[in-house]
Each structure stands twice: as structure tokens, then as C-alpha cells.
Specification:
With 296 residues, the chain is an alpha/beta fold. The chain has a 3-stranded parallel β-sheet with strand order 1-2-3, with helices on one face. Strands 4-7-10 form a 3-stranded antiparallel β-sheet. 37% of the residues are buried.
Length: 296
């Protein structure tokens, strides 16, 4: 555990693009259990900056479900949409340092010439030295280099990447002027003073990008743990549109026990009959070391 002058602050940051499904519950569960065991704080942040993907009523549904499942967060709920000006300030700082550039490439153009990397297409640097001017249809990319970025994941162990060769310069603001996830999450975690991130393994490959960005901005490196993904019958990660694994806020204990088992934890004793009793026992028994390092 961290010393008292470095408190544990965790978070769960769902996007309001649909109701909470079992895969999202597993991520929330692991993050919350880990924070409770460390006597830490746990923040709920709604990642609603991508308005085209936001579904009306989804945020309220997620909050209601988390309440029904016994999750208790510290302070008020944070909303990404209230931080747009702060993202722009950070982007301007990176512009002033020549750490970014304007990209005029379309996804179709990139796909014709780019190789596949660990997290999508490897941008070949087409616009890096073109000096394009910013306009309404151009993205902003961060300049990467050959430095090896590494961290020790509490589930997957040592992990490292050369961003220049494995992903290339990546987008921090999209062509539609929406701040990209990679930048928004770094700024959010800094503003929320997050110390520990426990989330799904679908974001494992993005972590080095976020550590790199945080380093450029002078932010402290966080402690990461990535949990296995819940997949559907087709072998794909569950999405908000996948109806195969819904969670019912009217019967929370069943899903909580299922999430507990999915995360490889020891059995909950049979006498547990309420959500409150479940969390009391889960807090004492939780072990991040038992979480399986399964990556699809």
C-alpha cells in the first residue's frame, strides 16, 4: 500500500453510450474492490466528451445501476464534458512546445499505406513535417520518438513499447474537434489526483501512450492493473450494444458474485445474503494477485 502522504485514489470512468453490461461491471468491481482494500478513495467519472456516441439516459442508468450494486464514490461525480477548456489549455501547451502537429490525412488514406500495429494502424508520419495549418477538418497528432516506454502492470507484469515503431504519432484531438481519449484520460486522472488505475485489458496497449503523454506534461506515472475482458460467443469484447450479458439492478448479488468468480477470487461464504455483506467480505478477501492475466 502507498504511504499516507500518497493516498490511494482509484476511479471508474464509463462512457454513457448504453447501459452497464457485465464486462463494465467487472472493471468497476475490480477498481472498487482494490480501492476499498487499500482504504482509498474511489471516483466516478462519466466520460461523456464524445457526444455523437452518447445515448440519452445512459449516464443516469449507469449511476442507478452502480448504486444498486453497492458502489459508493467519494465526492461528486465528475463529467468530462465540463473539462473541454482544460483539454484545450493542455493542447495549446503542447503546441507551444512543438510537441504536436496538424494532420490532414483521412483514415482511408492512412489505411492504404500504413502497417498494422499493436493498437491499430501505425501512422507513417506523412504530415509530420508538412506544416499544415489548423482548420475545421484536421486532427492534431503528438510527436513520438524511439524511447522505450515501460511500466509494471499489477496483473500482466512488465510491459514496454517503442511508440514510434509500434503505433507512430497518435491523435490527441480528432478532426471533429473532440479531444481524443488518450489525452482526455491523462488530463482527467491528473485533475482527479488518481494514483491507481484498474481497468479492462482492452486498454493495456494504450497505457504506454498515456504514460508518454503524462511524462511530456510533467504528470506523475500512475499504478496500473488490467483485468481480463468478458467476451461474447463470437470471441469479441462485450459492447454496450451486446445484449447477451446485461446486469439487472434488481438482483445485484447474483452479478456481483459472478464478477468475483470471473476475477479469480476465492469463494464468498454462503451466509452472505445482502450487497452490504458481500462488500464487507469481498474487501477483506480481494487479491489482485489472483486476477488471471488473460488477454484475448
Amino acid at each position: 500500500m502507498r504511504q499516507s502522504n500518497h493516498p490511494y485514489i482509484g476511479r471508474f470512468a464509463p462512457s454513457p453510450s448504453g447501459d452497464l453490461h457485465f464486462g463494465s461491471l467487472v472493471s468497476a468491481f475490480a477498481s472498487y474492490a482494490d480501492a476499498r482494500q487499500h482504504f482509498g478513495q474511489w471516483i466516478l467519472r462519466i466520460d461523456d466528451i464524445d457526444q455523437p456516441r452518447t445515448k440519452s439516459g445512459a449516464a443516469e442508468s449507469i449511476i442507478h445501476t452502480l448504486n444498486a450494486f453497492g458502489f459508493k464514490w467519494n465526492n461528486s461525480i465528475q463529467w468530462q464534458s465540463e473539462r473541454i477548456s482544460q483539454y484545450e489549455q493542455v493542447i495549446q501547451e503542447l503546441k507551444d512546445r512543438n510537441a504536436v502537429y496538424i494532420c490532414a490525412c483521412s483514415r482511408k488514406e492512412i489505411s492504404k499505406i500504413a502497417a498494422s500495429g499493436v493498437d491499430g494502424m501505425i501512422y507513417p508520419g506523412t504530415c509530420r513535417d508538412q506544416g499544415h495549418k489548423e482548420n475545421s477538418s484536421r486532427a492534431i497528432r503528438i510527436r513520438t520518438n524511439s524511447e522505450r516506454i515501460y511500466f509494471s502492470d499489477r496483473v500482466f507484469g512488465h510491459f514496454e513499447q517503442n511508440l514510434e515503431t509500434l503505433s507512430g504519432d497518435f491523435i490527441i484531438r480528432r478532426a471533429d474537434k473532440i479531444t481524443a481519449y488518450q489525452l482526455a484520460v491523462v488530463v482527467d486522472d491528473y485533475l482527479d489526483q488518481v494514483s491507481h488505475v484498474v481497468r479492462g485489458a482492452d486498454l493495456l496497449m494504450s497505457t504506454c501512450k498515456q504514460i508518454y503523454l503524462g511524462g511530456l506534461l510533467g504528470y506523475p506515472t500512475l499504478d496500473f492493473a488490467h483485468t481480463p475482458l468478458v467476451i461474447n460467443k463470437s470471441g469479441k469484447k462485450l459492447s454496450k450494444s451486446d445484449r447477451a450479458f446485461p446486469v439487472n439492478p434488481d438482483t445485484p448479488l447474483t452479478a456481483l458474485i459472478a464478477a468475483w468468480r470471473f476475477l479469480g477470487q476465492q469463494d464468498i461464504t454462503p451466509h452472505v445474503q445482502t450487497v452490504e455483506e458481500f462488500w464487507d467480505e469481498a474487501t477483506t478477501k480481494w487479491s489482485i494477485q489472483k486476477v488471471p492475466a488473460d488477454y484475448p
